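From the pipeline queue, job 12 of 40. The input is one protein chain; the requested action is below.

Action: predict structure.
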Amino acid sequence: MNVLLIYPEFPDTFWSFKHALKFIRKKAFAPPLGLLTVAAMLPTEWEKRLVDLNVTRLAKEDLVWADYVFISAMIVQRDAARAVIARCKQAGVPVVAGGPLFTSEHESFPDVDCFVLNEAEITLPLFLADLERGDPQRIYTTAEYPELCQTPVPLWELADLKQYASISVQFSRGCPFDCDFCNITALLGRRPRTKTAAQIIAELDHIYALGWRGSIFFVDDNLIGNKKGLKTELLPALIDWQQNKKGMPFNTPRSLTPGSIVISIRSAP
């Protein structure tokens, strides 16, 4: 099975950082963490390729090669996602869609063959089992929120890392607050669920082994949602791991009313 993972282009807005990235000779802020995590959940014997349209183009040969296209997107990527799906439809390649955009608006994408919605730890195995039987359903969804202790290390090696300014890592999902400007609790719930510190260290080891020495961005919507886990497990593990490492500063978004800023967890020497 040949699976082509496609990440649509961000429009020329705040989300793209398109003009600022030129100053550091990068094409995108970070590889698509969700798609690369899903890639790690797919059968190991499947062939996988990533096409991030923020750093490269989608070639006709890519679609000829693919048995399936997997696409994920944020709401701001809606128009670009429609264009990708139209190209896949024209090429006769079935499309499997998931992520925030499709979880929120799947009814608006009639040309998608299968929707694997909500969190893939629950819904992707159901799709894969049906696919193996030759009877995939159109929609896979769940009201449950999985624990993250089984979430695999993303396949960052599928990405051309030199094109990116940072690499994203996720420690937790969910937020204990219910701010009216944010839809995180609707998507991921109000109970922060975390990976273990050992999982995060395994991810950092993998990134380091690939030769990355740049910034690590913790994408958690509220990194301090589970304060005890952060203070007693993750931060001590990060401090220990960073000893004698070259580069690799850590950053995360930190919410402040009415907006947000980015703060440094700890910068490496």
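Job complete. The longest helix spans residues 227-242.
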